[in-house]
Amino acid sequence: xxPARATRVVIADDSALMRSVLADELTRxxxxxxxxxxxxxxxxxxxxxxxxxxxxxxxAMPGRDGVGVLQALHVRQLDIPxxxxxxxxxxAGARAVDALAEGxxxxxxxxxxxxxxxxxxxxxxxxxxxxxxxxARRGAPAAPAAPADRARRLAETxxxxxxxxxxxxxxxxxxxxxxxxxxxxxxxxxxxxAPLGSGTLIVQHMPEGFTASLADRLDRASPLxxxxxxxxxxIDGAQALIAPGGKHMHVSSTGLISxxxxxxxxxxxxxxxxxxxxAAAVWxxxxxxxxxxxxxxxxxxxxxxxxxxxxxxxxxxxxxCVVHGMPRAVAEAGLADDELDLxxxxxxxxxxxxx
Length: 355
Fold this sequence. Notes:
Strand order of the largest sheet: 8-10-7-6-13-14-15
Shape: globular
Helix content: 40-55%
Strand content: 15-25%
CATH topology of the largest domain: Rossmann fold
Largest sheet: 7 strands, parallel
Number of strands: 15
Structural class: alpha/beta
Distance between the termini: 39 Å
Radius of gyration: 20 Å
Number of helices: 12
CATH architecture of the largest domain: 3-Layer(aba) Sandwich
């Protein structure tokens, strides 16, 4: 579903030059820039006053930073999708991952060289339009379950997961995600036991440099050891390896994990289809593929390989997806064995991994 009118955007960035450049690029693309802000408090004021369709948000701003803005939007119940626009550094990478876990729609990395600007502008326009379109498709957010009821259900599920973890020693698990994935992974991984099957591989579409921060954040919160794949890694039931941003992750015939600088496929590097197809060839019926929220169809070709070699496939249901594109493509092709809300996936993954 596409919005029927021009997308209205507020731009928040502490650089006057960046605000001007972004406003020019978005306006040229037919997006209506209704306001700009130089710091977090001003961004909140513009959002409350103007009710934009999307907020373009820098993270490093004076006073209240970008993560603080996201938290305040939730507290004030301002349901405005946020696209994070961030330069990369070790500190910025961690903040960007925190912002995505707090519910930011997606991340676009600021260009590091002049030759990267056109691609950056295209990516930003695409993410802003998609954020508005998905918000329009979903409509007003549904009333959440009562906290006590949700806590009780999660506690019951986690107790079953804990009882079953000792037997979860068979399948290899491959988890793939894109837009909305960092937040989904932040909910999913902490609820999975260690060991989990024979090992876990994760492909999350993120710009180069940010996946190490994602791995660090997930590692601190999860029973599994979570790290960025570095090449020549051995799969381990107690560990989850994440494909580095800007590299493809391969699996050799002996199960050795490697990363490469091969060209992007369909504009993506890492490409989930590569990892899935390699894993299907190695582990066959011992492979469990889990497709989470994300735009596009990456994972569809890989899912076909999983089906051909006898593996199992779970996809996230539309009701909990930020963007339903990747899981929908697999489900509509008739390849999914089950379609589940994110809340219900940990128990299903454990049951499949142990079978």
